[in-house]
Design a protein that fits this description.
This protein has about 750 residues and is of the alpha+beta class. It is built from 20 helices and 34 strands. The strands form eleven sheets. Strands 13, 17, 18, 19, 20, 28 and 29 form a seven-stranded antiparallel beta sheet that branches. Strands 7, 8, 12 and 30 form a four-stranded antiparallel beta sheet that branches. Strands 9-27-22-21 form a four-stranded mixed beta sheet. It folds into four domains: about 1-100 and about 720-740, no CATH class; about 100-230 and about 585-625, no CATH class; about 250-425 and about 500-575, no CATH class; about 630-705, no CATH class. It holds the Pfam family DUF3176.
Length: about 750
């Protein structure tokens, strides 16, 4: 048995009561329907139709008027009052209570939304998996952009399909009230693409749900450019496992020259070159003085939190202003200035240097005295105190060079090596049959990390360097070990050997002792050592310029120590070569638009399904049908005869359903704008029925309200089927029209 439940208005229920008392109305004679007349109904009454043999049944409610067509004699009526739950329907095999389920006719649209979500998820998963990876590692035969384009095409097609079908379906719902016929064309155009959606979106009529679909259709145009913005290519650096990077450093330096006598040796050539380069053409900084191995041009080196990469033995300088120690002799002519260590300046001598006994445990210390003459003075001018060429105050400076431990942070970027000084610690000076500078540290840098130097009283596999109690390196023998020996790891001990310090000190002494700069015709015409002229700076020397001069010398000497030191104790700071690649970066913000459109599309479809499932202006979704974009609707549910007659300008012929020639497209649009229609149930089914110009949604025309002629309508007589019309011979599921006659209510 199948169930059809209709909620009838009071007006329809009253007509049905009268009809049921007057005639069987296709109802079995065995059923007593008088209870219907005696019901005290609320605003509406629910009547359940039990169809015992389904061969064809159709009904329609239109604003208080009900037309019934029945081609079976066996129909039972039962009544129920005050039903609060929604009505339930079963039509032509649709199960009972299916009204609360999603119509099967929308399954493709639901699947399409799922496919769109899958395409969006596939795009996110694809780009996410390769975010930060190099482009050459992309394993697929097509590019990642092509794959994104494919996913985007699937996403757009799947997203637009339910939107287009939804707008198409909404155009049929739109005509539940009288509307201009041109709206049918507007909705149809909007379902076909962005241009029609723009026209619909800016149309003043309030079709909010359809406007949402139009907005989604227009916004979907931006999905393609947005999807292409998701991927950004950039140059990135990747580890090159086929090469190595290293920076020279050392823990020990003992390179010397040829031994020439007691406590005397010549300095080796590379060290002499380093000294001259430091004095005459100093490096800009320590980075420029070092040659590193970085085959790719980009290398990184492990570092601590404070940026320390490695520690190395180095040469440090120090300078101080000793102008207060200058002695002025102005009692004689010419006037002269002197230092206790020997340098003097006077009438023609502008700068002078002399070695100084080491008082601060330095390899070498010298003092320099410099004088600045006015430019208008000549060599013959008197230097008396009342003369016009009395010089500026003399400037004196003392500078030293000593071994030290320096810690650097370093990297190589685009073939440019850059290192920065983190800390500097002088090595203690130790006298042990020569000059030694030795430091045993408590911790050391190994591969960019600090490691503790755990000393031991006996040699071990890691603690191999012995340091005596007085700070010298233990070479063996009971006499040296009398005070005790402590053993350290080799990486924790820094040594500047006397074999290197002795010739270096001698060479610097010979260079600086007794050197001077003089002028003859004028102070700008200088004669003397080139390196001393650089120190003098044409009389503009200051503590800052002298310190920079000595820094260049120390930096050049440090580079020589680092590159020629003992590689067994430190050798190189190891790094990681980086090669430039093209990498993929995902810009997640560009997924906002497609994600938002999908959410809106799902909301649009959900609202449409709810709109389809519930009563709208007295109609049921199964009565109007889920037509969507079907082109067959005009063939089955076209204009009613009267409206078509107005369009054609003459009566409609029964044989051809046409009378006048078809009007042009422009004329049809003009007529459609001025013609108001609504979907109503005619004798032959749903039709677009013409409506009066002032008719509103709750009104119906006289013909659509009663289905009677004017005289019958004035009598307010109900409609009953004509018993003279036989329905028993109608074929199953017949759609043949049923004739009606008016009957008077019983006395």
């Amino acid at each position: 048995m199948q169930l059809i439940a209709l909620v009838l208005s009071d007006r329809v229920a009253q007509a049905l009561q009268m009809s049921c008392e007057a005639t069987s109305f296709c109802v079995s004679n065995s059923v007593d329907l008088k209870d219907i007349a005696g019901l005290q109904r609320p605003a509406s009454t629910r009547i359940d139709f039990h169809v015992t043999q389904q061969t064809g049944f159709a009904d329609h409610i239109s604003n208080g008027t009900c037309y019934y067509r029945c081609n079976k004699r066996s129909v039972d009526f039962a009544t129920t009052r005050n039903m609060k739950e929604p009505y339930q329907t079963t039509v032509e095999g649709v199960p009972a209570k299916s009204r609360t389920r999603l119509p099967r006719s929308w399954s493709l649209e639901i699947i399409s939304c799922i496919v769109a979500l899958a395409a969006l998820a596939a795009t996110i998963a694809t780009v996410g998996a390769y975010n930060g990876r190099t482009l050459p590692n992309w394993p697929h035969p097509i590019s990642i952009n092509s794959m994104i384009s494919i996913f985007t095409a699937v996403f757009k097609a799947s997203l637009i399909m339910p939107i287009a079908e939804g707008i198409s379906q909404l155009k049929w719902y739109w005509f539940n009230e009288p509307r201009p016929l041109i709206d049918l064309d507007r909705f149809d155009t909007a379902s076909r693409g962005p241009w029609g959606s723009i026209l619909l979106l800016f149309h003043p009529r309030k079709h909010y749900l359809a406007s949402l679909g139009a907005f989604i259709t227009i916004a979907a145009l931006a999905v393609d450019p947005f999807s292409q913005q998701v991927i950004q290519y950039y140059d990135c650096l990747q580890t090159d496992t086929g090469s190595t990077a290293r920076i020279p450093k050392t823990n020990r330096y003992s390179v010397g020259g040829m031994h020439t006598g007691a406590r005397s040796a010549t300095l080796d050539g590379p060290t002499q070159v380093a000294i001259y380069m430091g004095l005459l053409s100093p490096p800009a900084n320590s980075s420029a003085s070092i040659s590193v191995d970085c085959p790719t041009g980009n290398c990184t080196f492990p570092a601590t939190d404070d940026g320390a990469t490695f520690s190395t033995l180095a040469i440090c300088r120090s300078c101080s202003d000793i102008s207060s120690t200058v002695t002025v002799n102005d009692t004689t002519t010419p006037v002269n200035y002197t230092l206790d260590s020997g340098p003097w300046v006077g009438q023609q001598v502008l700068a002078s240097t002399a070695g100084k006994a080491s008082t601060n445990n330095a390899i070498y210390t010298f003092e320099a005295l410099m004088l600045n003459y006015p430019d208008n003075c000549t060599a013959t001018d008197s230097l008396s105190s009342d003369g016009g060429c009395w010089p500026e105050d003399p400037f004196a400076v003392r500078c030293s060079l000593r071994p030290c431990l320096q810690t650097y942070g370093a990297n190589v970027t685009e073939n440019v090596y850059a290192e920065s000084l983190v800390s500097s610690t002088p090595l203690p000076y130790v006298i042990d049959n020569g000059w030694w500078w030795i430091l045993a540290a408590n911790r050391t840098l190994v591969d960019g990390a600090w490691r503790d130097c755990n000393a031991s009283t006996a040699p071990t596999s890691t603690n191999t360097v012995g340091i005596t109690e007085n700070g010298t390196v233990y070479h063996g023998g009971e006499a040296q070990a009398a005070g005790g020996v402590t053993y350290y790891p080799d990486a924790c001990v820094w040594v500047f050997n006397y074999t290197a310090a002795l010739p270096l000190g001698d060479f610097l002494y010979d260079m600086f002792e007794g050197s001077n700069v003089q002028f003859y015709a004028s102070p700008s015409a200088l004669v003397g050592e080139l390196w001393l002229e650089n120190l003098y700076r044409n009389g503009s020397a200051s503590l800052a310029t002298v310190d920079a001069f000595m820094d260049g010398l120390a930096t050049s000497m440090t580079a020589n120590v680092r590159t020629r030191g003992e590689t067994a104790s430190g050798g190189y700071a190891q790094g990681t070569p980086l090669v430039s690649r093209t990498c993929i970066r995902v810009r997640w913000a560009w997924f906002a638009l497609p994600t938002a459109l999908w959410v809106l599309a799902v909301g649009f479809l959900a609202a449409l399904l709810l709109r389809s499932a519930f009563r709208s202006e007295g109609r049921l979704w199964w009565q109007q049908g889920t037509w969507k974009s079907s082109v067959l609707v005009p063939f089955f549910h076209g204009l009613d005869g009267d409206t078509l007659e107005r369009f054609r300008g003459g009566p409609v012929r029964a044989d051809t359903n046409a009378s006048a020639p078809a009007v042009s497209g422009r004329e049809m649009q003009d007529m459609a704008r001025s013609t108001r229609v609504r979907l109503c149930y005619e004798d032959s089914g749903l039709k677009f029925v013409g409506a009066a110009a002032g008719e509103k949604g709750g009104e119906v025309s006289e013909r659509s309200e009663s289905g009677l002629d004017e005289s019958s309508a004035q009598q307010s007589s109900p409609l009953v089927p004509n018993p003279d019309v036989s329905v028993a011979n109608n074929p199953p599921r017949s759609r043949s029209p049923v004739s009606w006659r008016s009957v008077s209510p019983p006395a």
